[in-house]
Amino acid sequence: MWSSERTGHARASEATNALVEEHLAECEACRAELEQMEQPVAVRPEARCCGYGRLLTETLVRRAWETGCTAVTLEVREGNGAAQAVYRRCGFAGAGVRPHYYADNDEGALIMWLYREKKEETCGRRISTF
Predict the structure, then answer these.
(1) Which residues are catalytic?
(2) What is the pTM of this model?
(3) Confidence of residue 94 (pLDDT cuts 50, 70, 90)
(4) Are 61 and 71 in contact (CB under 8 A)?
(5) Would you give the DSSP letter of residue 69?
(6) Residue 85 belongs to what H/E stretch?
(7) Which CA distances in Å does 35 have to 11, 48, 69, 72, 87?
(8) Which residue of 65, 98, 104, 116 shows the fewest CB atoms closer than 10 Å?
(9) Phi-psi region of 76 (alpha: psi -120 to 50; beta: other; left: phi over 0)
């Protein structure tokens, strides 16, 4: 026989599980939508150093926040210091390296992450307006 206290805990646990499942479904939908965008992004050499990389990054991150994502990740060539600098200015941090990631020259990829809840400012703006 279940006591009322134990039954109450079981109901609370069921409610918690339902919320977790709902959150996971939302994350999965967000991930699926953003993964469709997964493609190489670059600024043409003649247009570099004009702020387009930062604008592109801001726009993609803003879209991620608008769809409810709480984190954004990307890979960038280990040797692409300019792109890494743009991403760092936008709040991304290196989290690891995937060796031999790029088939054209066997270069590794630096994995970078940006977490919405841990970053007060990104790209010089508050995330809520980002």
Answers:
(1) 75, 87
(2) 0.62
(3) very high
(4) no
(5) -
(6) helix 81-89
(7) 36, 26, 12, 11, 19
(8) 104
(9) beta
Residue 120 has pLDDT above 70, yes or no: no
Report the mean per-residue pLDDT for the chain: 75
Task: Report pLDDT digits (tens) over 32-58.
Answer: 555 555 667 777 888 888 888 899 899
Higher pLDDT among residues 114 and 117, named by residue: 114
User: CB of 74 within 8 A of CB of 87?
Assistant: yes
Q: Are 120 and 51 in contact (CB under 8 A)?
A: no
Both structure tokens of 35: 């993964």
The residues near 117 (Cβ < 8 Å, ≥ 6 apart) are 70
| Amino acid identity, position 48 | R
Residue 128 DSSP label:
G
What residues does 98 pair with on adjacent strands?
Answer: 109
Return d(Cα 74, Cα 41) in angstroms, integer: 10
For the residues of 26-59, what is the DSSP string, one character each? HHHHHHHHHHTT-S-----GGGTTSSHHHHHHHH
